[in-house]
Design goal:
Layout: H1 2-5, H2 27-35, H3 38-69, H4 75-85, H5 94-104, H6 111-115, H7 122-134, H8 137-145, H9 150-161, H10 163-179, H11 182-187, H12 196-206, H13 214-235, H14 237-247
């Protein structure tokens, strides 16, 4: 993909996968940036993804802690509903969500309108619940005897012990909203508000046919979109692998 983004003329053969210095140019990045502002698209994607991750971690920790360490009537029912929600495809919720977010709340062309449907992630809640269940209950009981509130117990005792779960939740959540197309496409009509994935799709549909080298320009935009995700996974690779291995080992 990166080599194709630098090609002056498209070469889709096997030989095109190997760089040819005579056929390399950075102009494809300038061309795609001239049609859609790459920095604006990246900023919108970052705000959208950051908001989703913030909501996922915040609500995931609160709900996961409550389901794991607090006793209340109907806790099992809530957890069962949590598992049931994971079986419902997001596409089935598009129409009622669109009516509620756009018509009732008036949040079209708004970052909050993009973030709200993804702010609570049932998978992240499940991950945090499983981590909190592994913690010894005596820690929390001793803190309660000393008079600590539940929020203080959560902040000073529970969260420091589940930092690997927080990293795992961030990594698992990041790629979804970063590449999300359908929902931002529905709720944003202003090009200045659209994430990069939506801007690239609009470029392919409306502008690419008239471009001098649409193949290279599209690949250049795809490289820019993929770069932050690749960098994040490389940076947290060791932590991501260790948490996955650790979560599969008992005892």
């Amino acid at each position: 993909m990166f080599i194709g983004s630098l090609q002056t003329s498209p070469d889709t053969s096997v030989a095109g996968a190997f760089p040819n210095p005579a056929n390399l140019t950075p102009e494809n990045y300038a061309n795609i940036n001239g049609s859609i502002n790459l920095l604006t698209g990246l900023a919108n994607s970052g705000i959208f993804t950051g908001g989703v991750i913030l909501g996922t971690v915040l609500f995931g920790i609160l709900v996961g802690y409550a389901l794991a360490q607090m006793q209340f009537r109907g806790r099992g029912v809530v957890f069962g509903m949590l598992l049931l929600v994971q079986m419902v495809p997001f596409q089935l919720l598009l129409i009622p969500l669109y009516v509620m977010i756009v018509r009732d709340y008036g949040l079209s062309d708004n970052y909050l309108g993009m973030i709200l449907p993804f702010a609570i992630n049932s998978t992240a809640v499940f991950v945090f619940r499983q981590y909190f269940l592994q913690l010894p209950s005596t820690l929390f009981e001793a803190a309660r005897i000393d008079g600590a509130s539940e929020l203080r117990i959560l902040w000073q005792i529970a969260i420091p012990l589940v930092r690997p779960a927080i990293v795992t939740a961030i990594l698992l959540t990041f790629i979804g909203p970063w590449n999300e197309f359908l929902w931002p496409f529905l709720v944003t009509k202003d090009a200045a508000m659209q994430p990069l994935a939506v801007s690239l799709a609009n470029y392919i549909s409306n502008i690419a046919a008239t471009a001098a080298n649409p193949f290279g320009a599209i690949l250049a935009g795809a490289c820019v979109l993929a770069a932050p995700a690749v960098a994040l996974f490389i940076f947290f690779q060791r932590q991501f692998i260790s948490t996955n291995i650790g979560s599969s080992v008992k005892g």
